[in-house]
Write the structure tokens for this entry.
Amino acid sequence: MTNWSSPEVKGDVCRTCDNSQKRIFTNGTEVRILLLETGKLARSRRSLRKQTILDEDSKIQEAWRNTLAVSQLSTLRWSFAEDAHAYATRGFTGIGVYRPKLEDFGLDRTIELLAEASLSVTSLSWVGGFTGSDGRAFDDAVADAIHAVRDAANLQAGTLIVLAGGQNNHIRNHARRTLCDALREIVAVAEEFGVRLSLEPIHPGCGDEWSFVNDLQSTLDIVETVGSPYLGLVLDTYHVGMDEDAVRWLPDVVPHLHLVQLGDARHSPLGEMNRCLLGDGCVPIRAILETLREYHYEGPLEVELIGEDVEPLSYDELLDHTKAFIDRMTDRVEQP
């Protein structure tokens, strides 16, 4: 049986690389891919000096404007339709899809809804558990992942997120071999469907049972061992952003980076995951984004906010604050 429990909330409830113009639904019919147009941002330039500064900063600004998304884990109690409406009306242009919500709403309905809302799918979460840490056999976990690859292809998701699974009393080398074997099987199918897989490192203070892969270096090692252009990684600032070595690793990470998830916290993860509002914690989000821009990361930014610190807030308040935070960062770029 598929274990839908999330590492974020336990028990609660692809993009193609070849720009193909069609995608196969589960019923065998073909549909044209919705091509979302992204407009250029207008900027006033009072002097040649200001123009130079703005041109230098424009890449990170356009990434915020054009590929900013919200993970459905941030609004877990809302329906799929409520998510899509709330994100789109606030100016977000992407959505990180959570598989239980997709299963409840239905694949074909989801595709129609997101087309109407002009929302692209930045990620599909998640597959994994190959070490048996969630009670599934290896073959069952791989079969579930292959099913998710097909869903990701139909959604034209930017990436399918992969969690390694806990070490589960295995020696580390055995757990690593098991993960690499699973990734090779899955990526062979993903290549056929044009779906990118992204391995996500999870901080050991809050996710040992979900992943024995905990840092950027070990994640890169696995990505390079498997050796497929369709396998990359996710950088979640909540899990790796407070690591002093994270920024140092970014030049090596960016060529393999499929998704950046934005999360903040008041302290290093310990126990249950607990993200605070963006800007209220100690994750150097601005510095990370500036470094990513310097090394030409042009992929999506997906906000994921969940935990005790944000529970008192309504989802409307959470989304409004998130949009305002990004706008303030953009405004600082635009200032002379």
Remarks:
- The domain at 49-334 is CATH 3.20.20.150 (TIM Barrel).
- The longest helix spans residues 172-193.
- The chain has twelve helices and ten strands.
- The CA atoms of residues 36 and 202 lie 32 Å apart.
